Structures are given as structure tokens and as C-alpha cells.
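User: Predict the structure for this protein chain, please.
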Amino acid sequence: MDEEQDKAYTWEGDYERTWEAIKEDEQGSLQSTVDDIIHRAKRRRFLDRPVNVRLGMMRHLFIILDMSKSMEEKDLKPTRLHSTIKLIESFIEEYYDQNPISQLGIITTSNMRAEKLTDLGGNPRRHINTLKKCKDKVCLKEPSLQNSLELALTSLRHMPGHASREVLIIMGSLTTCDPDNIHQTIDTMKSNNIRCSVIGLAAEVRICKKLCNVTNGKILLQFNFICFGLFFLFFKFVFCLL
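Assistant: Here is the predicted structure, written as C-alpha cells:
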């Protein structure tokens, strides 16, 4: 009978008894236990980081903004383009607040072409003022993912190896019109250690998923304006990694 009482149920063996980890110190305070739990959680997140990722201070980031016809959709009010620009403006300010010695640039893509709005630099006001002018531009035809990546590559490939090289793509279109083999461009981004991530405003696009998987980035899909904003916060804090 005693042996049966000492024997735990199968489900009890896998259950974490969190209440047993909380103990009072000599002064009757729980603060030391709480601090220890927080420290172990941070340590666990550190060990669970993706391979070839390490903390860094300097980031070099290009934001690629889709300005194709799909950005005129009104599932985000007033339009996808206006909502996206508003969030990018907030992201830029927070980006430099969290990464004061980092650099950022903006590329737009429409009409099957790519255009560099601003080159890599450390002046957030210049980026924001230039970005605001895009609200009055006409969204044309399809984007070109390959042309945009190639344009970002021309600047990022020359950045020092101790700093991060990143591309964040805001994609509203379900298609991309490219002049050549985009798979070769993806391999080039990987060989230059440029991590590419995509925030999709519509459904998941297969080539975007491959780009993120190959370059060790993330692909995220928005469902509403709040979710869209949270993705920017996710990128700002989680991707301050090299």
C-alpha cells in the first residue's frame, strides 16, 4: 500500500510543479526566486536561438516596400500603402532608438522595377520625410522581388562582417515579375550572409517562404492592423541579432 502511494502517476512525471520552485529567502521575500526564474528563462532563450546567430550592436537594414497595384487594397484602412507607411515611420524611430549606431535604407518596388528611396544612413528624419512622399505616388502593376534584392545587395555586400546585414520585405502582392532566375539571387543573398524576412499582407507566397528559409529569416502574415503592428515590434526586438 505504501509503495502504491509513493509511486506517482504517469502524467505527474511530466508535469512541471512550478509552485515547488518558489521559495522564500531568510527575510521572507520571493524576489530572489523570481530573479532566478527570470535569469533561467533568459538563459533558455539564449540557448534556443537559431544557429549562426549572435547578439550584435550594429545593424544594416534595407526595408523593401511593395508599391504594386495590390497596395491599393482597402483591407487595411484607408489603404494597405497608407497603413504600411504609417507603421514604417514608427518602426524607423524605434529602430534608431534601440540601435543608435546602426543604419537603415528604403527600397520601393512597382511596375516590375526597384527604386532606392534612401541609401543606408543614420538620419531617421530623412527616411521618414522621403517615405511620406510615397503616399501620393501611384501604385503600378507588379513588384519585382529579384530586382529589389539585387539593389539591396549592391550596398549590403560591402558592409563589414562584424555587423548584421538584413532585408525586411513588406509584400502585398501574390506575384513577382523578375527578369532572371531569382533562385540564384537567393543563393547570393545567403552566401553574403544577408538575412531576409517577409511580412506578407495577403497569403503566403512560396518564393518568399523559400527566401526566408534559405537566408535564416522569418515570414509573417498579417490578419489585421494590430497584428501588422505587432510584427514590426517582433522584428525590432527579436531581429536585433547578428
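The beta strands are 59-66, 103-110, 113-121, 164-171, 195-200, 219-221.
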